[in-house]
Amino acid sequence: MREVPMRYVKANQVGIVLFVLLSFVFNPIVVLGALWSIQVVGLASSGKLNLFVQIGKAVLTGKGTETQAVELQRFNNILAVLFLSLALTSFSLGWVAAGYVFSVMLLAAASAALLGYCVGCTVYFWYKQLRAGRKIGF
């Protein structure tokens, strides 16, 4: 199974957090639109052309040993693009409250991941369980 160095995953998460925070201060459509573009290009290129990963590669030194599966990283990026798309659509339609709700949800997920809990990983696990026909117990 292919793996992605966690330091690049974290670089992307930091970029997401910073851009979402900036969107609260500046024009959310412009800032979130830029973030959406960065994430879509990264998703389409399997992370190779993600601006935050490129900055991470240039700035971060040393080799980290922690990794994340490419499949899981791709799923998390799809979720980020989905929330960004929903936020941008909401803001564009004048549904400002909904735009902020989707932005805060993305901010919370990326912040939690930086603190060690991957919301997308949990959703991915549930998704795989449902696809396998298993019940999910809480």
Structure description:
The mean pLDDT is 91. The radius of gyration is 15 Å and the shape is globular. The two termini are 29 Å apart. The protein is 73% helix and 4% strand. It has helices at 6-25, 28-44, 51-59, 70-92, 96-114, 119-131, and strands at residues 3-5, 67-69. The chain contains six helices and two strands; from the N terminus they run βαααβααα. α1 packs antiparallel against α5 (96-114) and α4 packs antiparallel against α5.
Short characterization:
This protein is mainly alpha-helical and 138 residues long. Helices cover 73% and strands 4% of the residues.
Provide the fold topology.
Blueprint: E1 3-5, H1 6-25, H2 28-44, H3 51-59, E2 67-69, H4 70-92, H5 96-114, H6 119-131
Antiparallel strand pairs: 1-2
Helix pairs in contact: 1-2, 1-3, 1-5, 2-4, 4-5
Largest sheet: 2 strands, antiparallel
Count of individual helical segments: 6
Give start-end ranges of low-pLDDT stretches.
none
What portion of the residues fall into strands of 2 or more residues?
Answer: under 5%
Structural class category: mainly alpha
Helical content band: over 70%
What would you report as the Rg, rounded to the nearest angstrom?
Answer: 15 Å
Total beta strands: 2
Neighbour order of strands in the largest sheet: 1-2
Shape by Cα distribution = globular
Q: Span from first to last CA?
A: 29 Å
Mean pLDDT: 91
* Order of secondary-structure elements: EHHHEHHH
